[in-house]
Amino acid sequence: MYSDMATVAQARIEEEIAEHSSSIRSPTTLSPNCRIPPELLASIFIRCASDHYDLDPSAFRTNLGARDVPSWVNVSYVCRYWRAVALDCPTLWGYHFVVSRRWTEELLSRSQPAPLKIRIPFALARTKFMWWSLLEKLLDHTERIQELIARLPYKEIDLFLSGLSSPAPRLQNLEIWVLEGTASRWDSALFHGETPALHTLVPFCPVSLNSLKLSSLITL
Fold first, then answer.
1. DSSP character at residue 97
2. 36: left (phi over 0), alpha (psi -120 to 50) or beta
């Protein structure tokens, strides 16, 4: 009799342990932040990345470092649920920031196959090897680039333009700024002349308009 009671009591204890363990594993029973539907949470993350990207605080800095990783990335460190939502949202990581080789590779991987919005800040050109090696990695994905904004010294602009040789079917916005001097005229075709979606062009450098397909252009 006592052994039966002990067995029943043990079974109840095990059921309670299993129930509590399940509750601990389920994010919906934790903080209110973990009860936000993943689709809504992802849209909030994207808005944070978009706002930071539009502000572009590092665009004209003279140096960059690890501290320049934008603050919106911290959403992926809050908890397991937020991190899972963030990593499962390629669009979020398409808001590209350029601070190091490691982050460039990580962003390109996390953003597959979403379009890329890329800003190349003036500070990136502080060492030719660094900025060119990072740019080469980015231009391996030219077919995914939706927006490209570059602010570079005039001494580096020819090297930059020479890398824009592959078709860019998704490119909608192109801005090229030459700083600290005047660059020579560039007459060769950019993106192999294949930019069918391009609707905004801001060429603050001497680029020939004949080097681009402008049939969809709205703003110049």
1. -
2. beta
Q: Which residues contact 80 (CB under 8 A, 6 or more apart)?
A: 27
> How many other CB atoms are found less than 10 A from the CB of residue 181?
9
Q: What is the pLDDT along the chain (220 residues), one digit of tens a residue?
A: 545 555 655 566 566 555 544 444 444 445 777 788 999 999 999 999 998 888 755 544 545 555 568 888 999 999 999 999 999 999 999 998 877 788 888 999 999 999 999 988 766 555 555 667 778 888 899 999 999 988 877 777 888 888 888 999 999 998 888 876 665 666 677 888 888 888 887 766 666 666 666 666 666 5
Please list the alpha-helical segments (H only) found in 26-127. Answer: 38-55, 80-87, 90-93, 101-110
Partners of 116 in the beta sheet?
145
Which token pair is 112? 């597959």
The CA distance from 117 to 148, in Å, is: 6
| Cα gap 157→151, rounded to integer Å | 9
Place of tokens 């665009």: 59
pTM over 0.85, yes/no = no
The answer to whether 195 and 171 have CB atoms below 8 angstroms apart is: yes
CA distance 103 to 137: 11
DSSP 78: S
DSSP 3-state assignment of 203?
strand
Which stretches within the chain are classed as H helix? 2-25, 38-55, 80-87, 90-93, 101-110, 128-139, 157-162
